[in-house]
Amino acid sequence: MLVERMRAFGTTIFAEMSALAAATGAINLGQGFPDTDGPTTMLDIAADGLRSGLNQYPPGTGRPELRQAIASHQRSHYGLSYDPDGEVLVTVGATEAVSASILALTEPGDEVVVLEPYYDSYAAAITLAGAARVPVSLRPTTPGGRFTFDPDEFRAAVTRRTRAVLINSPHNPTGTVLTRDELEVIATVCVEHDLVAISDEVYEHLLYDGGAHVPIATLPGMRDRTVSISSAGKSFSVTGWKIGWICAAPPLIRAVNTVKQFLTYTHSAPMQLAVAYALDNEMEWVDALCASLAGRRDRLASGLESVGLSVTHPQGTYFIQADVRAIGLTDGEAFARSLPHDAGVVGIPTAVFCDNDEVGRPFVRFAFCKRDEVLDEAVNRLMGSRTSS
Ligand code: PMP
Ligand code: GLN
Question: Is the pLDDT reported for residue 389 higher than 90?
């Protein structure tokens, strides 16, 4: 039944591995969602909204309070100025923002340059649009080192058919935060070849060790050719709310909204109001979350190292990459698929986010956005299975 171009996709790895966690009773360090709630007042505002009749369609572009809060957030954090009435669009999570952008801005046969490993919905969105993805690989510079790309490879990926580049920083699944120099390489290519940058910044506030997020829209020549995407899910620990947004120049917003209005039109009025409140008032809560996540990153990293895995120390996101070559294996996917049964722990094989098999093969992604006791139990289980094997 399924259309031919979507047949390669099957079930998402997150659904598959979460189902495996449930079936085996394994600890789920696969799907990236926190196991604690967001700020209480934000939750109360959503609940009050539900009880006070805020239950009909909000405007198609999003509630004005939320568009205003998003515009203020971009100004106060990054010095980027967007008109809340013509340059901001509320979407069903970053997922819809990415899909609607690709569907609106690429023709069948166009190429989209994407950093690999890439978040799985990117590949599906590009395929849905009838476009083609052209991956540029992120690789660790040294064993256990930061994943980065080769600027020459990036430049060489652009052809006559390239329409857009789709980037993500902080980057899922590697934890890399692109530096200003790296972003400048990308920006220069976009300007030279007149490309649109679609920039997924959902982890914009989850940076560690004093790192700073640089939106590519702040680079010279980029503001009017960038679709900046973010979402409340990660910043405020409400991944189930799916309140996302886009900031972009009017021609880009109008194009994306033309598609978005027929995908979903609009959604979740009470949550939109609650996220508007959170963006205006809960950034200290986000800072505390970030400090706590940095501690949990270190806790899981040293736990994984204690069982013999070699790990990256991510500069941002929820995710650590573990290299199975350190325990004498080569195939991270086989390791990840056997782990729920052998050790009672779930991780995500990085290879599923790659076209180039060699890039992701030795790696498994573990999420550290879980309570300390959950991380400790996962490490205990891994330790137990290593000593018994
Ligand atoms: N982009 C990236 C890089 C992600 O990790 C995720 C998962 N949260 C998304 C997009 C999807 O975000 P949302 O849940 O807001 O749709
Ligand atoms: N973004 C989440 C992750 O990377 C998963 C979201 C999903 O289940 N599609 O783990």
Answer: no
